[in-house]
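Task card 7
Instruction: Convert sequence to structure tokens.
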Amino acid sequence: MSASQIPPATAVPGDDVPTLLVKIFGKDRPGITAGLFDTLAAYSVDVVDIEQMVTRGRITLCALVTAPSPAEGSTGSSEGDLRATVHSWAESLNLQAEIISGRGDNRPRGTGRSHVTVLGHPLTAETAAAIAAAITATGGNIDRIFRLAKYPVTAVEFAVSGAATDALRSVLAPEAARLGVDVAVVAAGLQRRAQRLVVMDVDSTLIQDEVIELFAAHAGCEAEVAEVTAAAMRGELDFEQSLHARVELLGGLDASVVEAVRKEVRLTPGARTLVRTLKRLGYQVGVVSGGFTQVTDALQEELGLDFASANTLEIVDGKLTGRVTGDIVDRAGKARLLREFAQQAGVPLAQTVAIGDGANDLDMLNTAGLGVAFNAKPVVREAAHTAVNVPFLDTVLYLLGITREEVEAADTHVG
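Output:
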């Protein structure tokens, strides 16, 4: 069709235009949608809106159409004929039909639109009721609910309008903590679908381990290092001072320990799926770590990461000296590196996602457009935009609106 053949756009029906909401319920089977619109086509109605959902083999199909005009010279009602015909068609398929008269289109959605993602393991009716009530209490309206995943967690998304994103987040965060579920609130809009940059912490986020503790185990000082690490992650110690104190204990280790530690590193469940899916979607992915390049460089190569930065253990004459070289990657350094990675990737900070678990991740989490506290310390959970407290890193995909079915479909079609 050429441009000259394209018909002019039809105006959206005004509030005074009669419309019919046609609702069909029943056992799903092929051909129901086509059959309904074939039936409606006989009355020359215009389709204003369509909504269809199938749950456990039961279909709910809604069509908002303009009311038909009486046939010229007819004394009957075309709307009455349409109603009778639709009901007859539905009954022939053992379906139920409901037709509601009204005027105009759907009422406009309220300003302030957000996506509220709820992760439950399991997701209980009590949780769903409490979250819905909390949304209503903020003045928000739930426009649509959609399931993103059924395993390893149940993830559902509420499309909400009429309430500011920040207001929703402030109300839902404490409610989620009380219920023991994870709730993420992000603003709706094109940015959610735009190409993004995702930057992760490494220790206890991308991997299950604290790398310096793996090194310490080979030096026989694991307990002492673990105690200092825990205090630093809780924000009780200056990170740079604690790093130097811990690394000093590694002095004299043979450099061959690096390869041994690399083999001991365990990826967090879902880490490969997260990175692989993000890369297929065109995202750029990086890591920043208070750990060591001797490990992050290997992870970058293994996972195909776009960016990686960490501290570097000094090695002289085949031995660890107990010192680090170069600039220290600490709390402020992680935020700085996020900005640098975003600039190199050509991605605005508003379209970045940061994931971390410790106090030294806080600046990075708050700098990103979306900061996700992953199985984090309490101080981090309270300060981040959202928290995920299940042990599967790929659940972060659901916060971005990516469904489990889409992840699995992508895996199926890639050799």
